[in-house]
Amino acid sequence: MTSTELAHGLFGVLETGDAKLAAEVVAADFRNREAAVAPSACSLPGPAGVLASGAWMRAAFSELRFPITDITGDEGQVWVRLRMQGHHTGPFVRFRDGSPDQAVPATGREIDFEQIHVLALRDGKVITHQAVRDDITMLGQLGVFPPAPATALRMITWKLTGKAAHAAAEVSSQAEAAALTAARR
Predict the structure, then answer these.
(1) Separation between Cα atoms, residue 69 and residue 116, nearest integer Å
(2) How far is the CA of 52 from the CAs of 3, 15, 56, 164, in angstroms?
């Protein structure tokens, strides 16, 4: 596969959870530098971590898509500029050091913001991923930053009632289940 095909494939895996495609485009020793804010399964090497990352994002955002607006690369590296788009229909849980840090209950809002991704390639597969994302825009679209009073109240209520912890456990479980599909291939 070309570098462009590998990039399209990687983001296709995140959109769909396609384990066969993950095995085709992701190296066994793949590492995702951006997994620090995700459930621990997203830090797993190889296709398992990518499948877990996709499950985590799709749990929060239905109709998740990553339309690529610009791409350039060679056999060793590819740079991708894209938009992350979706509909916030599930809890968006961010993690820190493997523990839930912030849970945003579904707002029903649309997200659409820009990201730049750098993928390292080896032997026709993606081996590392790092990104520069406009998370402030996404959090603004969700009403988290600056905090919209209704969103802030819902987040506080979720934390106090244990719903945030329950959502984090459920999202982590979904990510782990997705990672296991890589082992079954």
Answers:
(1) 10
(2) 23, 12, 6, 19
Contact 26, 10 (CB under 8 A): yes
Cα–Cα distance between 13 and 120 in angstroms, integer? Answer: 17
Type of residue numbered 107: T
Q: How far apart are CA 182 and CA 158, in angstroms?
A: 33
Predicted structure pTM score: 0.95
Alpha carbon 81 to chain centroid distance?
A: 15
- What is the residue-wise DSSP string for 23-34? HHHEEEEEEEGG
Q: Which two tokens stand for residue 168?
A: 């984090």
What residue type is assigned to position 76 of the chain?
G
Identify which of 73, 84, 68 has the alpha carbon closest to the alpha carbon of residue 34.
84
Q: How far is CA 43 from the centre of its chain?
A: 11
pLDDT tens per residue across span 148-176 = 899 899 999 999 999 999 999 999 999 99
The 3-state secondary structure of 90-149, one letter per residue = CCEEEEECCEEEEEECCCCCEEEEEEEEEEEEECCEEEEEEEEECHHHHHHHCCCCCCCH
Of residues 29, 53, 58, 33, the one with CA closest to residue 42: 53
